[in-house]
Amino acid sequence: MADKNYTPLTEAVYYILLSVTEPMHGYGIIQNVKEKSSGRLVLAAGTLYGAITNLLAKGWIETINEDAASRKKDYIITSDGLAVLKAELERLEELVKNGQEIIER
Amino acid sequence: MRKVEWHFWTLDQYNEEEQWLNKKAEEGWALVDAFAVRYVFESCEPGEYVYKILFTDGVKGTDERDDFTSFMNENDIEEVGRYHRWGYYRKKNDGTPFEMFNSKKEELAHVNKIKQLASVLVVLMALCLFTEIMAVLHNRFMLPALIMVAAVSVMVFKVYKGLDKKAKELEKDINLFE
Q1: How large is the ipTM?
Q2: Closest CA relative to residue B61, chosen from B92, B43, B87
């Protein structure tokens, strides 16, 4: 069962899970993460492969189809993955809220 | 145009090997096949490709390895050579760095996989050395064989130490930055 015990996530995993809230293949994830982070984070192929393999094994994402023509697999987040993502978002919000309260007062 | 070059690199020299391949590509020679010490190059536009060498989880023909290769293909990365668990990858040079990992932790895991192989070789060479020493004690004429085994053992141990040094440097970086 996915819960708060799985946070904090690495930055790469957080962005990968965010990307696959809609069906996306590997190259699409790389482009999406690059765009979302304004070019700051460019996922390396080995990192993405390792993360996807682990996320599939944990059941946080799943393969939804395999395009036989392009041989590209699409991935989508599962309900367990979404629960982890939400728990991570809550954690990040807490960090930002506490940081803002102290630094901006 | 094609040409074949022969070069020996030890397990701890994969960064140097990679630099050598990238220098070749900059000079207009793209690696198209690699097996052990044999490298096949084809002429290309200077700097057309960038190369990366990786010690993968599976050997040729395994599902693990095939999955990895097809995933790389999906990301416009081509595997041009395979030898044991080593893979030679290239992509078109678009001016962005060609990295396989985003974190030092993953780089460390990669070095540790190679170190594991090196440690098996160290144990094997230690056993060979012990056997040769026993043989020389019984037969003096076995001395040249002992010298050869000792020389290879020293080389294997140096390779292991080289990998250990790489791993320790990465561990220091992880402590500082991640």
Answers
A1: 0.79
A2: B87
